[in-house]
């Protein structure tokens, strides 16, 4: 991660913009603001990894977790945000459905996580196309209030047993009700008090060790929590510069496109991945799939990307992911990201890594036939049972094993075709098909037996 760039952008942000005065409302003993600086790596080092030594963090505050916090994201482009909350009097005097906020205070609050703390500026995007009450995360516009509310609900739903949820109430009463009620009414003081009460409960659960036990019992985040964490990572590392990813040569192997989390979820339901498995993403882009697979399964997850900018973003995401998983009290898994050509097997010990892989993902939707052919040749060295997920099949539909084809890689692949639906990939809203090919050399046995019988006649 280019830490100097992030530090510079946040350090230079003014605390005031236009007429919006930034006012701190301290709800708890503030932790030391997290920094983004870290050990500098050689500019020629094109690999980055997380080892299992960071399996599960000890209880720690924000001062020990070097993540890009929500307030940094907002301060970096403060002119694109405006106040959302009002004073108590103003919130009672105005219809909460009005779009124009009253008052000029910007509320700053710190939110307790299972393993850390994060500061938030309670503002909304100027050009916000979604209502704060929708609670829908949008990759194109970061809304810190939605982020905070969803974080609270994920802690409540995923970490707390019913006996501890009672300490926070529910949608009908108590702290959880107050958070929603005062958010909807845009009552700033009321919302601040609700966050303060929520933090007090979480601090008690952390201090007595209950939260650490809950996180350990969780083991791996479910799909919904994983998506939220990855959204937090993306919004803090990639979102502001995401348009640059579209600068590629059209109709080339380097056309950029992302496989969305909902399709990765479908992949994981159909392949055999455990915490002892090895997953590889050949052409991993900004690393979203690599991180999602590692988070949901705990397996060793490896990605390689040839293009410089996506590879750079992938490494930023990995560092932020590692920090955020600590804040959530979750294990990171063992992750490796590399910049390079996945057809160059001599680099990064790639040949041996491929031979150990259990599942390989290749988003070959835009690859030319030469690249797909070269990949198929590589698959000859995969172990039996290895699975290859692709968006174009490596095996022709009418492929048959005979004397002309028995030596081809297609002859050891048993393929199943699956359907995906709208919004599964970034380049189209339409559905499509994907393929899972399993290395199965037993497919050649009948052919060899037939050859042997013919030779005996």
Automatic annotation (TrEMBL):
Polar residues composition bias: residue spans: 1-14, 25-37
Enzyme class: transferase
Subcellular location: Nucleus
Keyword Transferase: yes
Entry binding sites for S-adenosyl-L-methionine: 279-288, 305, 341-342
Domain of life: Eukaryota
Chain positions covered by the region annotation Disordered: 1-61
Entry coiled-coil feature ranges: none
InterPro entries: DOT1_dom, H3-K79_meTrfase, SAM-dependent_MTases_sf
SUPFAM superfamilies, A to Z: S-adenosyl-L-methionine-dependent methyltransferases (SSF53335)
Reactions this protein catalyses: L-lysyl(79)-[histone H3] + 3 S-adenosyl-L-methionine = N(6),N(6),N(6)-trimethyl-L-lysyl(79)-[histone H3] + 3 S-adenosyl-L-homocysteine + 3 H(+)
Positions of the DOT1 domain: 125-452
GO biological process: DNA damage checkpoint signaling; DNA repair; methylation; subtelomeric heterochromatin formation
One cellular component (GO) term of this entry: nucleosome
Main localization category: nucleus
Basic and acidic residues: bias regions: 43-61
EC numbers, comma separated: 2.1.1.360
Keywords, sorted A to Z: Chromatin regulator, Methyltransferase, Nucleus, S-adenosyl-L-methionine, Transferase
A single GO molecular function term of this UniProt record: histone binding
More about this protein: In contrast to other lysine histone methyltransferases, it does not contain a SET domain, suggesting the existence of another mechanism for methylation of lysine residues of histones.
General function of this protein: Histone methyltransferase that specifically trimethylates histone H3 to form H3K79me3. This methylation is required for telomere silencing and for the pachytene checkpoint during the meiotic cell cycle by allowing the recruitment of RAD9 to double strand breaks. Nucleosomes are preferred as substrate compared to free histone.
Family: Belongs to the class I-like SAM-binding methyltransferase superfamily. DOT1 family.
Name assigned to this protein: Histone-lysine N-methyltransferase, H3 lysine-79 specific
Species in which this protein is naturally found: Syncephalastrum racemosum
The organism's taxonomic lineage, starting at the top: Eukaryota, Fungi, Fungi incertae sedis, Mucoromycota, Mucoromycotina
